[in-house]
Amino acid sequence: VASSWRLSQLEHLFCDRAAFGARLADGDEVVYRVEDVDGPGRDAQLGRAVTTIEPGDVGGEFFMTRGHMHAVRRDEVYVGLSGEGVVLMTDGERGAAQELSAGASVHIPAGWAHRTVNVGATRLRFLAVYHRDAGADYEWVRRRGMGAVVVADGETYRIDASRKTAA
Ligand code: PAN
Ligand code: ZN
User: What separation in Å is there between the alpha carbon of 77 and the centre of ligand 2?
Assistant: First the structure.
């Protein structure tokens, strides 16, 4: 099963309305897609999914996933396959950010919402290993935001924790 998300479906992720409109006027491009990796185990407890986030930004805010909290509070592991990313995490009070690159892994503790941001100039691809009973609560992130945004800063990136409004 594969799903893809286009710019027009992700307007709420970006702070800069004018920059969003300008980028969308150039075309409703795919920002990211998620493909489930199937195995023989119908009742498997662990699932795998590969996410591909295109490189790009809206007024300096890099392309990112919607972000979610697992409805059943389960932990998860990401393994970087290619590209350069940052995983933003928050438990609603504290925030954390970890880099994701090829061969690196990130552990997302149970009870921490997570969003992945492509901070590089190439596609970011990573494998997620998750509990299949965990579900995903997107409203949690829409209501509270992630506590920070990841913005371009010259050739690199900066995590701006003062812009808490972006959900
Ligand atoms: C990942 C994410 C994937 C897309 O497989 O679901 O990267 O992000 P959103 O689901 O926030 O749109 C994962 O964390 N699974 O639990
Ligand atoms: Zn998850």
Answer: 9
Report the alpha-carbon distance of residue 63 to residue 74 in Å, rounded: 25
Could you give phi then psi for residue 78, rounded to 5 degrees?
-105, 140
44 Cβ contact list (under 8 Å, min separation 6): 132
Helix, strand, or coil (residue 155)? coil
- What distance lies between CA 123 and its chain's CA centroid? 13
Structure token pair of residue 33:
């897609």
Residues in contact with 6: Cβ distance below 8 Å, sequence separation at least 6, in sequence order: 28, 29, 30, 31
Q: Could you give phi then psi for residue 7, rounded to 5 degrees? A: -50, -45
- d(Cα 127, Cα 132) in Å, to the nearest integer? 14
Q: Which ligand is nearest to the CA of 140?
A: 1
Which pTM was predicted?
Answer: 0.96
Atom 8, ligand 1: which residue's CA is nearest? 65
The atom number, within ligand 1, closest to the CA of 5 reads: 12
- Residue 111 is classified by DSSP as T
Question: What does the pLDDT look like over 36-51, one tens digit per residue?
Answer: 998 888 889 999 999 9
